[in-house]
Design goal:
Number of helices of chain A: 13
Number of domains of chain B: 1
Mean pLDDT of chain B: 87
Low-confidence stretches of chain B: none
Distance between the termini of chain A: 41 Å
Strand content of chain B: under 5%
Number of strands of chain A: 0
Oligomer: heterodimer
Number of domains of chain A: 2
Order of helices and strands of chain B: HHH
Low-confidence stretches of chain A: none
Distance between the termini of chain B: 47 Å
Amino acid sequence: MNEKKTFWKHLQAWVDGEEVILDADKYIVSRPKREKSDWRSHFTMEYVKEHRKLYMFLSIAISVLFIGIMLGVVNGLPEFGNPHNPANNEVMERYLESGIEETGATNFVAGMILDYRAFDTFAEANVLFLAVMCAVILLKKDSKNYCAQEEQEKYEDNIFDEREKKPILQMGGKVLAPLVILYGIYVILNGHLSPGGGFSGGSIIGAGLILYASAYGQKKMRTFFTFRTFTAISVGCLLTYCACKTYSFFTGANHVGFAIPKGTPGDILSGGFILPLNICVGLIVACTMYGFFALFTKGDI
Amino acid sequence: MSTGIQVTLLLFLIACAIGVSFTRNLFIAVIIFMGYSSIMAVIWLFLESPDLAITQAAVGAGVDSVLFFLTLKKVHALKGTREG
């Protein structure tokens, strides 16, 4: 038990980056010094100017090569509008004929991406989440990775932001941001009835949040949207999506013995799982969009 | 009438694409990209896919260009800003 505990402590120290090899100096001294070869020294401006003709020839040749490859591929594609193309198969007919009956959504696109092809959309939401997490790893500035100069710069920036007067932007944000967010919510909630859906509505809400944040500063934004709410919403929505689709998968994936009623097509509460899935995707996308903005401006949500 | 509008929009698209590759100012390039996205949204409407039109207008013209501007600011490519 004791040994396991020390192993665990070792692992923790290694994860935190505190594990140090004690005789590291010996290794470093015995290593032969490598000669630095910087690629920049080969490609100075003088070199480029001397070989101008070579560069021009190369750029034109590479462009022509790629244009040739693309035109060749386009030439090999099946003819546009041909009824015997491989894209015109029985899958499309099935979707168009029995889409409403099987999914309960009057918007065929929503029925396709959130019912027939719901696992694709799940992976897309995961990709968005991964992307914003990579941005967090690279760009997030918190108390652990600050140096004194950066802290000073941030402090000065905050003073500058507070004193800066932006009357047009603030007035515009006051009037437009609620309307934009309301329209986004409308698009999400009517995703299974009219054009739109989780992704478009979510990006509209994200745009509204960005407008508000750029008008009033992120300090005011942080009163209702912190990093904790951001992670809670993203992870909660992904888990809800996963749970919904797992339920649908284990009840036969074709809605056999499916306890969620589909309702009459055209009602707001219809379409089985499509409405909650739309809300989940919309929240994830809105959080991602705002998260990118916040991380790129201040390095903190 | 509808065909005329579509041809005009497609010509605008080509003009935007050529303009982007000939401008040397990155700020102007992003603005042209915004115009390209807005035109593309209208073309999606003509092609009877309003779903894509909404997404193109929100992402292409809105969020994408904001991210481009922020990246340009981060790499100090915008003149006239505090970090330029």
